[in-house]
């Protein structure tokens, strides 16, 4: 069971949360198909340290950034959107 | 050595002392015509077909740990080809047809048991959608049958038909040619076949980098030295993204842990494979008597080869809801494999963005059933540099053109 520190609610159990995505910047609409496909589909899918967007779907409903290790499942820290990392 | 009643008798009389090793474990050579990264079912099958269909003998399979120790040894051993889209039905049925002749071809018993696979419908809407899927599958040439509730009950009387069942059973559909096979034997049979044809299977050899000159791959760096290669095939399932990172590109793949578990062994009680759209779970009984079952993913990126308790609990709850009689069984083991999931739940087969490199990945939660076809297609690519007609729709370019093969809902299982 992951214990995830929601930046608003504090540590809560894994079933309250939903993994959303690897963070990415949405390109402008006039880019090539390749750039758009990269944004939509391609992932670094890192083994080890990974930055992820999660939501506290079964709690406050907020999105936040989670720094986590995909190999050991260690959770490093959670950041509010816009919070300087 | 050919395995037969005669060799069994001869070895029995000799006290079982003369059996040769099933495959060689040679030192890696400096150079091969083709190198396949990943010694699971897909990689070993590719090596076997490279040697026996295309006549290429200077071939190596590099496996970072032990042979078949990844998803090939961790799945729930189900084989089926009940797919919605024609492209999917073509490749999965090609695999199933090869499975049907594999024990004879490899002279190695893969214990294929075509006991049928039954998918349940729990509402009238489920039944309507299922009828649509079944019609599509029939047009694809797949042997599926729609069953009403009475027929399902006759086939699997242990299912929960109680009036207060949480998920009422309205019917289902079956593919009679579906079933299970012995997963380790598939890896071992292909390894033995490939080794016998001269393929070098090198275990404990991890790829640490690729030699790329002017956009073309010329070899691999490994924990056992550098190996140059005319062509390289990647068949590394959950670790495909790691290899892609080493070669300087990204894939439309996310790796997740998929859990499976077995109960203690009991006498024969379930003679088919059962899946449920409502609980997302699937269960069959192994030849040893254990119930082998699993369900959905732990839905966050993972390379841990283990899942977490919330999903395990859901899987077990789902099975007990469907089969109340199983609730006194003890759980024997639970584990997880690393599955490489694509956005459209279809695999990626074809040239990589680096010349001379070919992909066979993205099989997600259903790679075992596809092993013979995945191997065949990768071998074709490595030998000819061209797609086999069956693998062409699964090219990586589909993510740019938008021509996805969206089996997320059509594949007949819950994800």
CATH superfamily of chain A: Folate-binding superfamily
**Roughly what is the average pLDDT of chain B, rounded to an integer?**
96
Which CATH class of the largest domain in chain B applies here?
Alpha Beta
Could you state the order of secondary-structure elements of chain B as H and E?
HEHEEHHEHEHEEHEEEEHEEEEHEEEHHH
Helix percent of chain A reads: 10-25%
Number of strands of chain B: 18
> How does the major sheet of chain B shape up?
8 strands, mixed
Largest sheet of chain A: 4 strands, antiparallel
CATH structural architecture of the largest domain in chain B: 3-Layer(bba) Sandwich
Q: Averaged pLDDT of chain A, please?
A: 95
Structure class of chain B = alpha/beta
State the secondary-structure class of chain A: mainly beta
Rg measurement of chain B, Å: 21 Å
Tally the beta strands of chain A: 6
Summarize the structure.
The complex is a heterodimer of chains A (85) and B (415). Chain A has 85 residues and is mostly beta strands. Chain A is built from one helix and six strands, in the order βββαβββ.
Blueprint (SSEs and pairs):
The complex is a heterodimer of chains A (85) and B (415).
Chain A: E1 3-6, E2 10-13, E3 18-21, H1 33-41, E4 49-55, E5 63-69, E6 75-79
Antiparallel strand pairs in A: 1-2, 3-4, 4-5, 5-6
Chain B: H1 5-13, E1 31-37, H2 41-52, E2 59-62, E3 78-79, H3 86-100, H4 102-106, E4 117-121, H5 124-139, E5 144-148, H6 149-155, E6 171-175, E7 179-180, H7 183-196, E8 200-202, E9 207-213, E10 216-222, E11 225-234, H8 240-247, E12 253-265, E13 273-276, E14 282-285, E15 290-301, H9 309-322, E16 331-342, E17 348-351, E18 357-361, H10 371-384, H11 398-401, H12 407-410
Parallel strand pairs in B: 1-2, 1-11, 2-8, 4-13, 11-18
Antiparallel strand pairs in B: 3-7, 4-6, 5-6, 9-10, 10-11, 12-15, 12-16, 13-14, 14-15, 17-18
